[in-house]
Amino acid sequence: MELKKNPNLMNGKVFIKTFGCQMNEYDSNRIYESVSKIGLIKTEVFDEANCYILNTCHIRDKAKEKVYHEIGRVKKNFRQKKKPIVIIAGCVAQAENQEMIKREPYIDIVIGPQSYHKINDSILNYIRNKNKKEETDFETESKFDYFDKIKNKDSNVSSFLTIQEGCDKFCKFCVVPYTRGPEYSRSFNNIIYEAKQLIKNGSREITLLGQNVNAYLYKEKNNIFRLSDLIMSLDKMPELKRIRYTTSHPIDMTDDLIECYRKSKKLVPFIHLPIQSGSNKVLKLMNRKHTVEHYLSIYEKIKKINSDIEFSSDFIIGYPGETEKDFEETLSLIKKLKFINSYSFIFSPRPGTPASDFPLINENITKERLNKVQNELFNNQIRKNKITELKTVSVLVENKIKDQEKYFGRTECMTSVIFEGKKNIEGEIVQVFINKSNQNSLFGKIQFNHKIIAA
Ligand code: SAM
Ligand code: SF4
Ligand code: F3S
Predict the structure, then answer these.
(1) Is the shortest distance between the CB of 204 and ligand 3 below 6 Å?
(2) Domain for residue 146, yes or no?
(3) Does residue 314 surpass a pLDDT of 60?
């Protein structure tokens, strides 16, 4: 019906550039599906689009400047052509709202992450009336009600599924509570329905997403559903092979969730659980609401269930107040827990957050500390990859590498594997004998009838 009203949009092409976290990737896919209803078709060719959407991230650094730089690129590209519709979505849109249109009149629509159910109307309104629009209300329910009505057509072997959005924790350094709003959990049944759709489309791995995914809590009549209920329901879906979830907060690692590592056959033996610092003093200054001891108790409970489960984390280095002693505590925690596939960032003051007013520590000291942390994390990774050499690992095959007789897949711990294999194995779990590794990847050859001896 909408198509008939808008013949001018038929064969229009939309290009989305996505920055930031997996939740933005999920949103971008859903936005593609939404705008297809008004005749905008997805393109991956920058030059041929007549609608640009920048799905932005505000978590660190010069996020805002990156967006204006990107708009400059679109402007330059279209100097000799008809101006495309330019839309700013995501967390910078939410944080900056109408200021963006004032500063850069080339922008036509600014839309925050909780208003994507209004994106089609905003585009149509702009086309008809040339009305510039800013939509930044917090109405998570309407966004997901709307997304639930559109089929999720994602057909990747590994797919994202957002189950929870927003944050009530207010760590002093973080913009998420301001850009994504309060914690909101989607309906249990709608998530299960979407998971079934994804599996029908060919997904064999589902990553349940949320800014605080393990804070998921959905109440319906007298029933309470948690992340553990979702995992155990997904576990029963025959064609699904792997389950992941990210990002979790240590304070919400409840016993029922930890028990899933014993009960579920499909939950991977790998958990991304950010600690941010190894110093209790710094954790308090950050308002993290957990201590190092609490984190260690979760680590031990999970390792007791299965000692092969690997941990990954995020670290903020050079947080205001971090002394050499605090930093050494972080370093020794990394050495002790041997985190793999982890992320470390220099503290970035974010406008509007309490920590943005705290006095910064010396830049050279911070950079030196970051180097030390990254070396330690890289060493953990190299060590982990090295011990996998001459062993056989279980790999979920994601795709064939273009123009080569090679395939790409991932281990249960998310490490990339490039290997020689037979045809039509996308979506299968295969055994790969690893003969070489570097810091980021494993290389090998598909095996048959081999016992798995490394995760
Ligand atoms: N909710 C997750 C948690 O509590 O662990 C984190 C989500 S946040 C989107 C991802 C990561 O960005 C954080 O774990 C933190 O390490 C990093 N981050 C957030 N704000 C930051 C800042 N102001 N400066 C540097 N890194 C930051
Ligand atoms: Fe940000 Fe803290 Fe919330 Fe994570 S828990 S999203 S770091 S405020
Ligand atoms: Fe960035 Fe927003 Fe995700 S700030 S990390 S896109 S929640």
Answers:
(1) no
(2) no
(3) yes
